[in-house]
Amino acid sequence: MSELLAQLWTPQMQTAFTVVIVLLVILYVLSIVWVVRDAYLRGTTWYVWAIVALVPFLGVIAYCLLRPPMLQIDRDEQELEVALKQRQLMKYGECAACGYPVEADYVLCPNCHTQLKNLCGQCGHALEPTWTVCPYCAAPVGSAEPRRRRPQQRPQGQVRERAPRA
What is the pLDDT, as a whole number, of residue 24? Predict the structure, then answer.
């Protein structure tokens, strides 16, 4: 038996065996590094996963099965998108009468024509029904006489030329 083992255990076989062992050790170390790095990027307790990954093969398999599904940066980006959508939706409301979606500055509901806001008598801006003073021109709400806009006057000396007819 020892003669057979001596014939099989040649220097080339020893070298191949050593190379395979070194490659397995490198693979083991790299798998631990991958688990630690991935756990850190996913925002979990990476040092706990590093300890779990020290168990050969089973640690890496356990991490792959139990790791969070998203990277931390992806979760942050998703939260920002949700916050942006909520902010965009805040511009809109619903008509109290029919529930139709209306924008914040609508004066009338486009669906049922219910008056949603009052108009300022001075500047014409839309006002909330509870406001007592216009925040745009400081006029008290309820002043019934609207200010008329004067047509713009051209400075003297400026005459508008007619375009030649073709």
Answer: 95
Kindly state the average pLDDT of the residues 53-61: 90
Residue 29 and residue 56 in contact, taking contact as beta carbons nearer than 8 Å: no
- Taking all residues of the chain, what is their mean pLDDT, rounded to a whole number? 81
Helix or strand holding residue 35 (H, E): helix 11-41
Q: CA nearest 40: which of 143, 21, 32?
A: 32
Give φ, ψ of 82 to 5 degrees: -65, -45
Closest CA to 37 of 72, 76, 8, 77: 72
State mean pLDDT over 92-113: 83
d(CA 12, CA 6): 12
Contacts 24+ apart (CB under 8 A), 122-125: 122/146, 122/147, 123/147
